[in-house]
């Protein structure tokens, strides 16, 4: 195989990979700095009005983007966040610590569909919108209520509002046995953010799809 042939094949592979990646545009519309976390993707400080473009390969599952607040990092990218902290790293390698509002997704899954959701199963810290912006899909889901301000006293946390599973760690709230339903606490979240997961089995009203290859916006404080 000649060098030119190898180069052509590598170029075609790069083009194929790019065409099958979904682009997530993450925007901070909050009047304060938010440190976006993403798995896969890492993390980035977003001052008010700034955006971050993240390319995620087709077939990626178990992925999420979330806001982190009140962070301090040194020059090496080590530090801590009040909410959403990921092992003290600016560029996350693992999921964040509750409470944090989640934009979750799995790309090119069953029938080549993307599955997207907003989850409050790890609690809430910053309002957000998760919406498609290409491919003819017009899906837009949001959680913009003042959950921090209205949070029940038992669930309050510095900078956010915990999900009851985080606080009480019981099967009733965490659904470990697969035999659970809505609770008064989950209804607190659901009435304020009907699009979002309020407890782990909340699939029917909280899981949405778009065709594979769609690009998305995640907006903090929409």
Write down the CATH class.
Answer: Mainly Beta
Question: What is the typical, i.e. mean, pLDDT?
Answer: 92
Strand content: 25-35%
- Look at the structure and name the CATH superfamily: Thaumatin
**Quaternary structure state of the chains depicted:** single chain
Number of helices: 5
Q: For the CA atoms, what is the radius of gyration? A: 18 Å
The biggest sheet amounts to: 7 strands, antiparallel
Shape: globular
Distinctive features:
222 residues, alpha+beta, Thaumatin, 5 helices, disordered N terminus
Walkthrough of the structure:
This protein has 222 residues and is an alpha+beta fold. The chain has one domain (21-220): Thaumatin (Sandwich), CATH 2.60.110.10. Strands 2, 3, 5, 6, 7, 8 and 13 form a seven-stranded antiparallel beta sheet that branches. The chain has helices at residues 3-19, 147-150, 164-168, 171-174, 184-192; strands at 22-28, 34-39, 42-46, 51-56, 63-73, 79-83, 102-106, 113-119, 128-132, 140-143, 156-157, 160-161, 208-211, 216-220. It starts with a helix and ends with a strand. The longest helix is centred in the N-terminal third of the chain and has 17 residues, at 3-19. Strand 5 and strand 6 (79-83) form a beta hairpin.
């Amino acid at each position: 195989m000649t060098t030119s042939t190898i180069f052509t094949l590598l170029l075609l592979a790069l083009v194929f990979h790019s065409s099958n990646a979904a682009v997530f545009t993450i925007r901070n519309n909050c009047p304060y700095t938010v440190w976006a976390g993403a798995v896969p993707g890492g993390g980035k400080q977003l001052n008010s009005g700034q955006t971050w473009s993240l390319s995620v390969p087709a077939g990626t599952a178990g992925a999420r983007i979330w806001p982190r607040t009140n962070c301090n990092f040194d020059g090496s990218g080590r530090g801590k966040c009040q909410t959403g902290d990921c092992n003290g790293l600016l560029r996350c390698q693992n999921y964040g610590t509750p409470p944090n509002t989640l934009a979750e997704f799995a790309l090119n899954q069953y029938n080549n569909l993307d599955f997207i959701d907003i989850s409050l199963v790890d609690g809430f810290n910053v309002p957000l919108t998760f919406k498609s912006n290409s491919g003819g899909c017009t899906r837009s889901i949001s959680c913009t209520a003042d959950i921090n301000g209205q949070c029940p006293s038992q669930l309050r946390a510095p900078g956010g509002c915990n999900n009851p599973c985080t606080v009480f760690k019981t099967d009733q709230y965490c659904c470990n046995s697969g035999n659970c339903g809505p609770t008064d606490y989950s209804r607190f979240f659901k009435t304020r953010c009907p699009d979002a997961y309020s407890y782990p089995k909340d699939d029917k009203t909280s899981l949405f799809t778009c065709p594979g290859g769609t690009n998305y916006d995640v907006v903090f404080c929409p």
